[in-house]
Amino acid sequence: MSSIITCLCVLLSVAFYTLLERKVLGYIQIRKGPKMVGFWGIIQPFSDAIKLFVKEKIILHGSNQFLFYFAPFMGFFLAMFIWFLYPSNFCVKFICWGMLVFFCVSAMNVYAIMLAGWTSNSKYAFLGALRAAAQTISYEVSLLLILLFPIFTISELSMDMYMLFPVFIIFIPLILTWFTSSLAETNRAPFDFAEGESELVSGFNIEYGGGGFAMLFLAEYANILFMSMITVILFSFSSNFCVMVLQSLLVSMFFLFARGAFPRHRYDLLMNICWKSFLPFSMCTLMLIMIFVNN
Questions:
Q1: Rounded distance between C-alpha atoms, residue 149 and residue 285, angstroms
Q2: Does residue 255 register a pLDDT over 90?
Q3: Peptide bond before 166: cis, by omega within 30 degrees of 0?
Q4: What is the 3-state secondary structure (H, E, C) of 59-122?
Q5: What is the mean pLDDT of residues 63-81?
Q6: What percent of the chain lies above the pLDDT cut of 90?
Q7: 3-state secondary structure of 242
Q8: 146 near 282, Cβ under 8 Å?
Q9: Averaged confidence pLDDT in the chain
Q10: Considering just the CA atoms, what is the radius of gyration of the chain in Å?
Q11: Which parts of 119-239 fold into alpha helices (H)?
């Protein structure tokens, strides 16, 4: 029952987060955003969900049909599964290896994107999948090295313990590095090269419509909200669950502000930032913390 409630809460959060995104981007661009379906457009996410899931299913000739339909389900399942790691004062389970599970599950997300692009039998989808794979694998390295900083500091792999020991606050530059890596890891603007509409015609999900597209969409936004929650766990001083939820909403707003404020980056510059800037920086911070821990 706890797992079902968690999934329902995540789905509702994703639905209203998409409405919030459209409203924020609308006001950034001096327009209103959704406002016709229900009061202040509040029913718009449910209207979009019904429209997507009742659309006619299109079977692509030349595609690997089983894996083509399996890829969105895999991405959606991984996005829901990773949310079972969230720490809470009301949680009925305790996962002592939460960080290790987070490493494993987040690394598997790239397989869902690669399958979605490869099985579509479309060159645009395959190019988008290759871009996403290279980008995700690259920034997973910097994310893992940054997360090793608190792991070695408090010698704990459970996410519940990080609510009591927010060690990142002692090294402020890691906050910007972590947030930028989170943007690239979740394929969000200005690093959304897996979905470059101008050159890839929407990227790896171009051949998906209806329910398949909706599941890929839900997986992406569920991962954004989870990365916002992880950011709060590592940076926040509060161990109160309600305060953590409000702070997670605030962090998720920065994902929207980054999309509205910055133009799309160049792909080669994005890879250079990871391998020539973030990776050496995270390795240096890891060496520093190892020196302090050993002393």
A1: 7
A2: yes
A3: no
A4: CCCCCCHHHHHHHHHHHHHHHHHHHHHCCCCCCCCCCCCHHHHHHHHHHHHHHHHHHHHHCCCC
A5: 89
A6: 15
A7: helix
A8: yes
A9: 83
A10: 19
A11: 123-154, 159-162, 173-185, 197-200, 211-235
Tens digits of per-residue pLDDT, 2-30? 778 888 889 999 999 999 999 999 999 88
> CB within 8 A of 162, min separation 6: which ones?
87, 150, 154, 156, 233, 234
The candidate with the shortest Cα–Cα distance to 131, out of 214, 204, 79, 217, is: 204
Which residue, 182, 177, 188, 234, is CA-closest to 21? 188
> CA 125, CA 172: separation in Å to the nearest integer?
38
Residue 85 has which token pair? 């790691």
Q: Give the model confidence (pLDDT) of 168-183 as tens digits.
A: 555 678 888 888 989 9
DSSP state of 2: H
Length of the chain: 295
Q: ∠ at Cα 79 (78, 80), nearest 5°?
A: 90
CA dist 274 and 185 (Å) reads: 11
Query: How many angstroms separate the CA atoms of 36 and 30, rounded?
Result: 17
Q: Which residue has the tokens 């990773």?
A: 82
256: Cα separation from own chain's centroid: 13
Residue type at position 295: N
The token duo for 221 is 């936004």
Helix, strand or coil, per DSSP, at residue 210:
coil
